[in-house]
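Case study B.
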Amino acid sequence: MSQPQTDVLIVEDEPVVRMAAERVLNWAGVTTDTAHDVDSAIAKIRADAYKLVLCDLKLPGASGFELFDQARALVKPPEIVMVTGYATLENSLESFQLGAFDFIPKPFDPRELLGVVRRAIRFRIASGASGNLSPDFLAAEAARHDADVGVETYQLGRHSWARIDKDGMVTLGAAETFAGMLREIDTIEFSGGSEHSVQGKTLVRVSSNGGLVHRVWAPLSGRILTTNKLIEADPQVLDRDPFGAGWLAQIIPSDLERELPLIAHRSNPEGERNSDS
Amino acid sequence: MRTRISHQLIVVVALTAAVIFGLFSHLLITSHRRTIVTVMEGYADESAETIQRSTRFAMLQNQPDEVRQIIDAIGRQENILGIRILNKDGRVIYSPDEGSIGTMVDKQAEACYVCHSTDAPLERPDRTSRTRFFNNALGIIKPIYNEPSCSEAACHAHPPDQAVLGVLDITLDLAGTERHMAEERGKALLTIGGAILSISFLIWLIVYQLVGKPVGKLMKATDAVAAGDLDYQIEVKRNDELGKLQHSFNDMTRKIAETESQLYQSNKLASVGQLAAGIAHEINNPLTGILTFSSLLLSQTDQDPAVHEDLETIVRETKRCRDIVKGLLDFSRQVPPRKTNSDINSIVNQALAIVDHELDVANIQVTRGLLEELPTVRIDANQMVQVLINLLVNAAHAIGPKKGGEIFVGSDLTTIEGKPHIEIKVADNGCGIPSQHLQKVFEPFFTTRDTGGTGLGLAVVWGIVNEHGGTISVDSQPKRGTTFTILLPVNESSRPTNGISHEPATD
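Model:
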């Protein structure tokens, strides 16, 4: 393509936030472009093949959510990450429902912003935007499918998953936009004293590559029964087998009836194929 | 102008008394009068009889002078207005009034009419017919009947076939009697008036004591409350309906005062929350700038320890700002509760488990008074755990370094206005809160601690409880301790948590 390729489009009406994001990303070698509102952002997305759009939720004129409608019409839409000072549960859930890659509450930590952007660019590259899939991604994909055979999951976007076990417990884990994109995982830490999981709130914090910060948003609420000791000892398991040995926590769900419809149901076609053979 | 109950009652009772007494006296006086009249009639009749008998002999002897003398003597009596004897033709033959002798009376006149209304005169009329009343006087006529001795007397001619020889007519003076009757009437009226006056006074006294005084107190209280004095309380001394009414009035006033203070508090906190939320969002953007640029600088100044340290301070304090903003947003309920059916006791235990270490280090004794078989309530378990943690941490701070610190955490089921509520109490024996601060403890940024604490803990607690449709109140005595009481409504769909296991198995 003859189009110039910029990595990230920052859609933000607040100059200081725009500047801050640009500085962090440029400093890390990520190329950026900026837009002030949804309309100019759409014009830019049509003109350039961005890997990622960082979009503020509250913009003058139209809401950041409207970007999803416009982006869907493109042949190869960029990943979208919502950034907001109104970090409510509703906003985070809606972002994932609309197909957001991730969600960043303001004020963000540069390491968190960079963490999300890095994952998004890796995912974009791995999922074939540039034509060559990374070996890491393929390995993770294979592991995921092995573990995933015949299992039905519910997913918060493509970000985290929940599996309803036979005993009524629910196992939670991180999904493809997260797990396979971390590279060197340093620590995995449960937020809030590992007592509760709340849908749309931070379940674990992961630090990777010596300074990037990520969070896994919980797909369902409940009281945490056990956490995976294996990933604490060997965090890299999360990368290798996110749907199997890399699970994060087991919970007693507290409001399944209400929360399940808010996240997507996914049955694995791979499993069906296996059972046919 | 107000019409007093006592006045109305007095008018009604007085009128009724006047009618009853008046009627009674009237009947009494009338009957008295009838008796007197009968007596007078009898007296008049007897007098006439006496006169007849007295004159009989003189008549038989045909000595008209003697008859005249007797008539004159009787006619002079004080109570006799007139006396005369008429012959059978109606001519006056004897009378003390010399001039009238020989005159004819009109047979159609009142006195004669009784017998002479028909062609053949009546010979033996009864006494009542013979009597007539006029001008304070009583007249009676008495026919003088023919007797054998009359017709056989030597003197002259009373033919034996003539039945009535003449008529004796006496008029008695009734002026004295009438005076007496008037006196009686006067006395009766006086008695009635006196009785009505005393009854009225008695009624006024009773009504004033039983109704006027307590109602007056109530009216004064109503005025005071209407004017805004919600602390006004009536001194209740009675045990009757009005006493109960006063009691209810006091209760009502107290309740209004409580509701008003809650409403005031909740309005104030709500507007503070809104303000805080607005500010928080505005602050988020500049905070992002500060955090980003200071973090970037931080990562570039590893070689210069002094600058590095300063930058670390900036980053740390910026993060603190971020946490305060987050607290403000929590308080202003930007995060709506995620309600699930939850067991309060398990929430209490979770919260206690989290702060267990802190309480242990501070040597604080925790007592639990949890009511088993509480119904579940629809609440956000995480938020409610946070509420309890905040209260427990607050209690621990109130106790401070002093020895013998105790915290009581209790749950109970209670009914408020007919609806079941779960009551959660967190009580400590710490330093207490001065009364002038009690109203402010739930306000954001109100803190008595010198260090640590954002002053948001209780504001967040209030916000969460309020969002759950519950109330939180605080009761405290300086140096004795503080009790926080949370009331959460129990929704109808809730069931006792372990109710099922208690049901007997039946087939």
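The longest strand of chain B covers residues 406-416. The remaining cases will be described in the next quarterly update.
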